[in-house]
Amino acid sequence: MTISYIRPIVPDPAPGKVAATSARSVGQPLPLIAIPASRPPRLTNVLYRMAAVDHRGRVADRHITAALDWNAGTRLSIREHDGLLVVTADPHGVFQPTKEGYLRLPADARRAAGLGSGDRVLLTAHLDRQTVTVFPPIALDQLLLPALPGGEDA
User: Which residue from 10, 90, 112, 151 could staple onto 80, CB 3.0 to 4.6 Å apart?
Assistant: First the structure.
């Protein structure tokens, strides 16, 4: 059996254009954008994460609980505030992270925030205050849509 190869066809550059390799010498790196040597410091000690909520209320992110050093024995209180859920370390709290390190939002809290199974939420952990705020999709719509190009009419 004989294998035949088809020679590739490479078109010539358009008239008046110079091939990219001829504009610079071969082997020379392409220019990169300038990145400032220093960036302004963060104003807060807040960690941001996005995660999905499963049908049992578990929030699929363990970075938040790890950063706050919350484990299965940490007592938490969960309250609704203006459509957001606020989770706080509280020695009198009745909730706890799962043994795997996930937050579990009770059904009443999920209903109050309008959360359904599979919804993705924004988690903001204020590390100094030992608090997590859960932003459901409706709250993100209210916050972000007016700021997007085209606003709410887009």
Answer: 112
Architecture of domain 46-146: 3-Layer(aba) Sandwich (3.40)
Evaluated on CA atoms 105, 124, 130, 97, the torsion sign reads positive
Which pLDDT value is given to residue 48? Answer: 95
Confidence of residue 34 (pLDDT cuts 50, 70, 90): confident
Please determine, for residue 40, whether its predicted confidence score (pLDDT) is greater than 80. no
3-state secondary structure of 148: coil
Give the global pTM. Answer: 0.70
Rounded CA separation 24/29 (Å): 9
- Domain locations in the chain as residue ranges: 46-146
* Cα–Cα distance measured from residue 122 to residue 48, given in angstroms and rounded to the nearest whole number: 7
What is the torsional sign of CA 127, 71, 90, 108? positive
DSSP tag of 126: E
On the 0-12 / 13-18 / 19+ scale of CB atoms within 10 A, 46 is middle
Name 137's Cβ contacts closer than 8 Å, sequence gap at least 6: 114, 119, 120, 121
Contact at 8 Å (CB) between 75 and 92? yes
